[in-house]
Amino acid sequence: MTITTQSRPQRWDQPFGSDMTDGDVERLLTIPEIQAIEAKKFPSRISLAGILRNDARIMQYKAGDIVIREGDYGNSAFLILNGSLRVVLAPGLPGEMLGRRKIQKKNFWQALKQLWTQKISPEFRDVQRYNPESGLREAKDPGSAHVFLQDIPAILDSNKTAILEGGALFGELAALGRTPRTSTIFAETDSELLEIRWQGLREFRKYDQGWRRLIDERYRQNALKAHLGATSIFEHLDDSDLQEVADHTLFETYGTFDWHLSYKKMQGQDRVEGVKDEPEIARQGSYPDGVLMVRAGFARVSVQRGNGSQTITYLGAGDFYGADEIYKTWKGETDVSLKVTITALGYVEILRVPTKTIEKHLFAYWESGRQGGTRDGNPNPGKRRRIQDFFEQTLAEGALQEWAVQERFVNGTQAMLINLDRCVRCDDCVRACASTHDGNPRFVRHGKTFQNWMVANACMHCADPVCMIGCPTGAIHRSMSGGMVIINDDTCIGCETCANSCPYSNIRMVSIRDEGGQHILDPQNHKPIIKATKCDLCADQITGPACAFACPHDALNRVDFRDVTWGGETGGQ
Description:
Helix content is 24%, strand content 23%. The chain is an alpha+beta fold. It folds into three domains: 11-99 and 146-207, Jelly Rolls, CATH 2.60.120; 231-392, Jelly Rolls, CATH 2.60.120; 407-559, Alpha-Beta Plaits (2-Layer Sandwich).
């Protein structure tokens, strides 16, 4: 019998920059910002030179090229090697200048006109829209491109900007925290940058104290204080007290940043991942050492049931846990322990506020009677129940909650939930979607089911949109109004990054056609040009999502999984 063997895939099998050479690495090691790193602190398997070779790449930008865009989700940071860049501070560049789609609602007559102006061929495109003036510039890497600004002096005149020059580091907080970029940065002159993906940043922070202090201090100064001030348990504090809380808060990450890759692989193998396979954040029965606040991602909340565990709810961005237990201890109760186990769902960022800080800045305020009902650890008492309430849920409700968490549907803010007891399979929803999207429906009416509920294969407009990470042109983005995830057809280059990243396989690549129904071909390789398509919630339709509007039996709803009531009917729009 022949046995087939294969070496286990390694982290650096796919370098970030395919054309990095030994000469490039030697040159980078002489740059002051890199030279200051203590190379001897890095283990031999993850050497400093190895990180530069495999987790970094040298990027060339021409004057006017956008390096990062406000609102994008990035997975890398940049160090300026040569040239100068500009940060656009205020009022900010309009979305269409950043390569995004400007949404305009159709009026009544435009909506009615759709009924008799349908194209014969699906996914028809006017080729005149794609031209050198579209604002895209080819980049060196295959499947990549730069969005560029055509009138820099006018931008400088109409916006407040700041200059960045050689040695400046930017983008690291959004990369490590998987949060949207807070500003747009473009090349003022031809520039050379070192782009470091988040894995390399993590290693720099882990093994070099200088980089750790730099990143941590910038995070505390620029993001942490604002985040704490926006939460219900600290919103009563003034700036000085907030700064004190921020100075003592611990920043922790659990799980895998690119969790969607392993998740899709496990789904393909029908492997069920449970609590035992997830990184543990807090264990039931342990002593509470601080309040846990979720900054990004999701965490499973479960309790021991016999020899196993039962998921009772989950925590998302803005939620926190542990205040009740610490409060009881502060009031003199003994043997107080955590009532639940908390584990990371994919990737989660946790802020751990130590007990003494909580006692000093929160409990005295609670005792004054001004807490307004937030003591239960619920950041939004009017919208969600307390964690304690989930202990009383029925077995049916608990099973449905377990399913939603297990399948990561809790990520969805506009999931397509179909009640199969009402659905008669008439496909009116599919036809309505097709009629508003170039003759091609943007979803498939099938999906994972539990009892009488089905989550269809339609974009869920996730709270953690991993599909947006790595889009080279910013074509896939979150709209400024409504927060829906949409794709600008004019700047999508068909690289498939978003489709490959979506954990739920809800983005599809389609070949585009001309008015005669023929495939539009790439003149270089004569292959059909493809574009990414997905549900855009009918952003330009006055009726809202056509699928829900057309359902004759009210079987289909768009729901935020945070608001789903499993007892019978569900909320939605």
